[in-house]
Amino acid sequence: MTIWGVPLENGGVQMTGSSVTFGSRHAPQAYSGRIVSLEGSRLLASLQDASGTALDLTLDLQLDPSARTFSGSLHAA
Prior knowledge:
Blueprint: E1 2-7, E2 13-22, E3 31-39, E4 42-48, E5 54-64, E6 69-76
Antiparallel strand pairs: 1-2, 2-3, 3-4, 4-5, 5-6
């Protein structure tokens, strides 16, 4: 997942573009697409495989700015 954008004063980003890939260890780019919603620490992405099969991803992040780390959960539907 790559996000392009402008840094905001509050530590966030105003997204201007994105790229997302998702797959297995053997085919890590089986699905590709973009982020369709970025609200706080929740990202929603819309992806497709080569045959056009759709996959929606929801990523909920917990950010730790002091340690510069994050954790989270991923839901695929």
